[in-house]
Write a sequence for this structure.
């Protein structure tokens, strides 16, 4: 679990701001929709009020020596991890100052563990192994972005020119829901409310697009007024297209549900503590 702080300096708290998470890129897989990814990155770059969280599975990380390797699915131009993560770094560099943080995912973690075992067999130091085996940490260092691990709390602060601040809490995680229908994804997001206190809940991994906005009751700080508050929940989609003409994938082999590629968006109006979400 990581704890992160991100400050957005604004002219006015009455402006509207956006978080557009980018997750499950799977660079190195033929099905990775790099055109859509670059389209969304350019959109974030050109909107001064739009920010992002990277939700994990930056690279596919399935190399020739991996039992999951399939010659029909890997991108021959981005075969090795250094090329896959190098592509991610170059793609994200134009928006590096708008990245709230970067998560690792299960594909990233599988590669990290494999590389750590290989380095350990070479009698390298623990510090060297930790640094050299973790490609997501390398991406974070290269882009000067916070590392969010598998899950994190982020305190998102909007601060205006007069020094007034409004804060929101984000709980974000790569996630671990396997398969199932969209309702299963929403159920997993709602389960998080039981254990993690936040205003915004974000989860990747499933490649599904699912959002919900909930109203809950609270009382004012002095306990004399009833307040209606909002929290939003979102499964952040992804960029792996499982069904492409003349190509194959594990999505096709399991007859999984087709899905579009892209993102969801969280909309924030700090002065009213207004939150909304859409896919």
């Amino acid at each position: 679990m990581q704890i992160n702080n991100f400050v957005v300096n604004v002219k006015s708290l009455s402006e509207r701001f956006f978080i557009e998470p980018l997750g499950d890129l799977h660079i190195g897989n033929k099905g990775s929709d790099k055109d859509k990814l670059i389209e969304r990155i350019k959109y974030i770059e050109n909107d001064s009020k739009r920010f992002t969280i990277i939700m994990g599975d930056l690279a596919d990380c399935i190399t020739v020596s991996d039992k999951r390797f399939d010659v029909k699915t890997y991108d021959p131009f981005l075969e090795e991890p250094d090329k896959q993560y190098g592509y991610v770094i170059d793609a994200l560099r134009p928006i590096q100052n708008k990245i709230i943080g970067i998560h690792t995912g299960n594909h990233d973690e599988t590669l990290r563990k494999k590389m750590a075992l290989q380095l350990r067999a070479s009698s390298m130091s623990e510090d060297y192994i930790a640094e050299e085996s973790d490609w997501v940490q390398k991406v974070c260092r290269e882009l000067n972005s916070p590392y969010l691990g598998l899950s994190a709390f982020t305190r998102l602060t909007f601060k205006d020119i007069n020094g007034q601040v409004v804060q929101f809490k984000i709980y974000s995680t790569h996630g671990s829901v396997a398969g199932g229908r969209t309702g299963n994804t929403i159920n997993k997001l709602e389960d998080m409310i039981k254990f993690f206190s936040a205003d915004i809940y974000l989860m990747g991994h499933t490649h599904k697009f699912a959002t919900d906005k909930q109203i809950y009751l609270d009382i004012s700080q002095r306990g004399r007024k009833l307040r209606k508050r909002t929290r939003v929940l979102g499964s952040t989609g992804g960029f792996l297209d499982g069904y492409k003409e003349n190509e194959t994938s594990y999505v096709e082999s399991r007859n999984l549900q087709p899905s579009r590629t892209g993102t969801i968006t969280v909309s924030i109006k700090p002065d009213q503590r207004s939150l909304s979400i859409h896919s």
